[in-house]
Amino acid sequence: MQVKNKERIRFYIKPDLCFNRKLMVRTFKDKATDYFLTAFLVNNAFTRWNIRFLQDTKLQKLIFLSEKSMIEQCEKGFNFYFIKLTHGPFSEELKNSYDNFSQIKFLNDFGLKPTVHTRMILEDFQDVIKRNQVFFKKIDEVNEQYARMPLEKLLKIIYAMPWGRGTRTIADLPLHTPILYPMKPERISLEFKITDDEAEDLLMNFDPEAIHDLSEAMRDAQEGRWKTYEQVFSDL
Amino acid sequence: MHKKGDGKLTSKSSPTYNQDFTDKFSDQLRKLRDKVRVKRINDKVLEILNAPYRDIRFGAGRWRGKREERTGDDRIMFAVCGQCRKEKHQEYNNCLNCKNIPDNTIRFFETIDSHKYNEGRR
Fold it and tell me: ipTM of the predicted structure?
């Protein structure tokens, strides 16, 4: 995974082409895939690579590196946009995702530790994992190399990565420069395989409103608040 | 279809299955302003009551232990008590006084509008 100094990274775009971003809207399937891969990455970092705490910044970098390694092989897995901010690559969509994860108790607020719900999702979607081994292997490799690395060292490695066709590195780029974004369809050699039904099921599981409704229904069941068919349907 | 000539929904008791609906299920139906969807949900509920063991599909993740059936973009989440016990799903559904509920009861938990998760594909 280590990027060689002279390696040219084709997936970076020039700042003057950033208008293209508007053309690459994440689909519902893309979002479901992003949520699922993120859940896997976090769980993998904690359970397989034994980290005890995951900072927001480090999560951003681990996903950046995973997405980068996929895009280098023209594999469409993660679909986050990354721009350069003060601490290197940052994705607003990703930040919204893990804020959402905390809200629905999918990850703990402190340390982004996976909860029982994370494990349930990963168990119930084993077929998706088996079908897409290539992507999960890449995430595992990134975690193996970087998850336990001190954040400062990880940031230095990322800052030193080359950007574009010149000699510039990510550290040289102006703030807000787009540095990673989903590929155009014609470049994709391998796509994450997920059915419409699986994508729907995943999105439901990451939707705070759906979780809230379910909690209310479950509370009714636990507290014995039931109605008859006639009470429910008679005056509709 | 179980609709009178005046357009009102009618009930049809299942000969073999008791039915329970959470308050949440009832509230969700009342908030639906689309009569067509209400009628479709009613029809699907009656279908489930008449033959609960066809087309078995369980929910995933947080919905583990609940069966689901779809009508249009709406999902109906429910459990058949006998099946719930057999599959050891009580820990997920966690109903009050579970032991006192007959096996031939179908408990309807909620409906979910899937439209926002599928870009309107159905």
Answer: 0.88
